[in-house]
Amino acid sequence: MRFTKMHGLGNDYIFVNCFEEKVVGPERLSLVISDRHRGIGADGLILICPSDIADVKMRIFNADGSEAQMCGNGIRCVAKYAYEHKLVKSKKPSMTVETGRGVLTLGLEIDKKDKVEKVSVNMGQPILEPAKIPVALKGNSVIDAAIDVSGQRMLMTCVSMGNPHAVFFVDDLEGVNLEKLGPIIENHKLFPQRVNAHFVRVNSQNEFSMRTWERGSGITLACGTGACACCAAAVLTNRCGRKVTAHLPGGDLQLNWLQEDNCVYMTGPATEVFTGDWPIS
Question: Which residues are catalytic?
């Protein structure tokens, strides 16, 4: 099976072109292929498939084999791969991608060598209703709500960008024991489908720094949907404006939560690392 390894700000995935390859049992394949010691090593597996309603379709599987609805860094890589490997017939600097959250529209920044340098994605409207995130709390939204984590009371803001996110604002970002707190929050009883946990330090009205524990993958260098959720959370708690730069361990993302359509727009790079063959037994 031919594969390509790509990453968005260090959030790396194994991509398979399902226009040409057939993948059986992607849940187990992701578990094996993502292993950083016995496999290729990645945060998960992404299948690029034909679509009846968009230019291409993406399916995302976390490193633990669970399927996710959406991946912000992954979708930028899908766009780069689809354009540069000519899965999309049109040479227009835009395309549509079918995801678990619906069809999303992407804009491409093309360099002089006809390579995709950056990708802008309309990530859709943040979902704030607790039942739709989902989080087992009442009300119309979860903003600076208290949660008990190993006997420690913490305040969180919850947002779904097609997958669930819990955002915690802190003063000492480096002092957060993410390896300990991440899995506890991910599997907390308040989250019936588990959750992505993000710790955020606001630097100014137009920038913040963040660290992430991703549901099913653990600590990652970047999380695109998570950055969008943190942007929304910062606005909802009056900590930042709607147009911000998110500093992630793997690099920066530009985010803009527009009032006109209530959608969050994300712009960032996508990088192809290498291509190889995985033995299928």
Answer: 71, 223
Separation CA 245–CA 230 (nearest Å): 11
Q: What percent of the chain has pLDDT over 70?
A: 100
Q: Where in the chain is the domain with CATH 3.10.310.10?
A: 2-107, 130-260
Per-residue pLDDT reduced to its tens digit, 154-209: 999 999 999 999 999 999 999 999 999 999 999 999 999 999 999 999 999 999 99
For 274, residues 6+ apart whose C-beta sits below 8 A from its C-beta are 4, 5
Q: Which CATH number fits domain 2-107: 3.60.20.10, 2.40.160.210, 3.40.50.10860, 3.10.310.10?
A: 3.10.310.10
Query: What's the predicted TM-score (pTM) here?
Result: 0.92
Return all residues near 80 (Cβ < 8 A) that are at least 6 apart.
Answer: 6, 108, 116, 119, 270, 272
Class of the CATH-defined domain 130-260? alpha beta
